[in-house]
Amino acid sequence: MGHPDRDGSVDVVVGIVTHRRPASLRDLLERLALLRFGEAAAPRIAVVVVDNSPDLESRAVVQELSVRHPLPIEYVPLGAGNIASGRNEVLRVTCGRAPLVALIDDDEVPEPDWLHHLLAAQERTSADVVVGPVIAGYPEDAPSWLRRPAFHSEGSQAVAGWVHEAYTSNVLFRSGMVLGLSLSFDEALGVSGGEDQLFFRQANAGGARIYFEPAAVVHDPVARERLSVSYLLRREFRKGGTLGLLDRSRPGWPAGRPLLRIARAGWWTVTGITMIGSSIPTGDRGRSVAGLMRVARAAGMLHGLLGGIYDLYAAPVTRPRRGPRMVFVAAEGPEFQRAGHSRHLQGFLSHYAGAGYDVVVVVPGTRTGFLVRRLGAGVTYCAPSLLTIAGWQVVLAPRAIAEHVAWALFRRSPAMMQRLVDRVRTARRSRLQVDHVLGAWLSPALGRWVHRSLEQLAPHAVFFNSVFMVPDQLALPDSVQLSAVIAHDVVHERAASFRAAGHQVLPADFSSTWEAERLDMVDAVVAIQWDDAEALARLAPRARIVVSPVVVEAEPASREDAVAGRCLFVGSGSLHNVEAINWFLRECWPAIADAHPASELHVVGTVCARMNKVPEGVILRGEVGDLAEEYRRAQVAIAPLRTGSGLKVKVVESLCHGVATVTTSVGAQGLGRVRPRPYVLADTPSEFSGLVIDLLGDGGMRSRAEAAALSAAPLFSPARAYRELDEVLVVAGVANWSTTQEEQACSPVS
């Protein structure tokens, strides 16, 4: 290998800009020591390393290797952080020193004959610029769909010949070209990217010729954080943004491009959506991601044309912290189903965001509950399928989009279509021999993702929204001062309830032992009701048990507007709701209809999709926009639940709206010690129908039931519901404030 002459002159300088990658820089410098040139005479080579990190981490690496390296290595401390500034420093140091300059990234691995092929191509063609391919290298466990050249490689499929563009990750150019055309990298693009694209476009516009040499190969080991769909989409957004920014009157960039760029963005969007659609029947995930990348590039281009700058490598920040950070790890966002457990979670989010906490919802799966949302002062989301760009959070994973769209279409479909879909789903559950899903444990991969997310977010408090969200091996970052599980119910009791009714649950072998093991991993358990608190205390004797019931903020309904004879049932399509309403219609409704022929029953919620023919007087309302109006117009609310556990949100809602409520022992769980009793209790068909008949016909009895219901409402106000938990947060050091406590209007009897 050639060395500089005594006068210091060299044939080629290899320039490297490094930024906080001392380990990969060491590997690269050691590989440069192995460069080979076949039978050709070895050129005189020097290496220049520009350290662009403010901390100058690579100084020690260069000093150590310089002692024994066969090539002279010059270390240039810069610390600017701006990649364009680093590359300009390479030009300043090298262009007056050698006729040829080669650039390679600090995390790449060149083939031994890499530089030989660049030099040979330049000598053969007299090109001003020679560029070679950058081939991605993947970890062994990287998924096969990801190993596509278009995802992480550059120029891997091109053939030798003249081109119009180049990039700095594998390039050789004449220093005379740089000096003659007064070229430099645009430092205004050092964050957004595109400075190398503009540099070589300007060179080409000035008459420089660019040649692609496929034999001059460097390899780019793909870091694990770049294997995600999120990274690919963010990178494509940045690429599109670069094109948009370059069209904003950059010297040397062809004029008139903005209109062409807008047209191209439209083309990318259409073709990307087409690719996504065509990939769904075949299950080709790689093709669907490639389609999403086109759409992201189109969005980025429009963002760039408007002057937006996107930093791909900035540390992910949800938004500036307003206060202590509180993270909720949940299987789904509260807007996905809007069921009882969703209402419970939404209460926590609203309360603590309003109290000045920085609230983040971490969703390990696909059910964020939205496809597009704007970042604001409220709650931020973090999910594998989620991309945060320019103040917006966008769901871009194909499976997540399909799931959200399918659920939205189902909820808006006619009742007949909903019932048809439900028959298909019911048949599938029957084949799988599963009647009710208790929850799903996090897979090892998702558990690792949760750990990485928590490390990145560095929260002060972490709440796992059910025991199923606690990873197998829980390792919390040092920032966490309080960890807790939100227990919407006692899961093994719910499992026992369904098994006793002859249903098969999943996980089939879920037990109190499993539940206790997960609860033992955290500092506190948040129970939804007071009876559950006692059961959870037995399961988790070392944890602090607090009670935070579901919050319902409702104006008491005007009883003057109630429609004579109207009853109301509200429920999602969960199994316990389906069984409850079918039991009521079969066992109780005939007697009520006989006693009050003008009576009617409104059934509200997605439970309607699982109901077929109903008796006369029963109206399936489906999902409604204003549930308060339904409560205002109802004389009696029913909750004839036969299975389940926890606190029934439908019961709490009817109480807080001041509606006379008839429920079963199951429906009244957690409220048994509240005095005065805010509901009317009945478990047998004759008792249940008899009480509904009496309430519909006896205004005095109904008024007393309504007053008792309203007396319990303060229990479910935010100030009361979160008082215990607020105090626990203060004691744990997560907060330095306490909530104002309203006077206790009624409480469970000790």
Description:
The chain is α/β, with parallel strands linked by helices and 750 residues long. It folds into five domains: 212 residues, Spore Coat Polysaccharide Biosynthesis Protein SpsA, Chain A (Alpha-Beta Complex); 65 residues; 171 residues, Glycogen Phosphorylase B (Rossmann fold, 3-Layer(aba) Sandwich); 32 residues; 158 residues, Rossmann fold, CATH 3.40.50.2000. The chain contains 25 helices and 29 strands. The strands form six sheets. It has an eight-stranded mixed β-sheet, sandwiched between helices. A seven-stranded parallel β-sheet has the order 15-13-12-19-20-22-23, sandwiched between helices. Strands 26-25-24-27-28-29 form a six-stranded parallel β-sheet, with helices on both faces. It starts with 11 loop residues before the first strand and ends in an 18-residue tail after the last helix. The C terminus is likely disordered.
Computed Rg:
33 Å
Total helical elements: 25
Strand order of the largest sheet: 3-2-1-4-9-6-10-8
Distance between the termini: 87 Å
Strand residues, percent: 15-25%
Indicate the CATH architecture of the largest domain: Alpha-Beta Complex
Brief characterization of the structure:
The chain has 25 helices and 29 strands. Helix 1 links the parallel strand 1 and strand 2 (45-51).
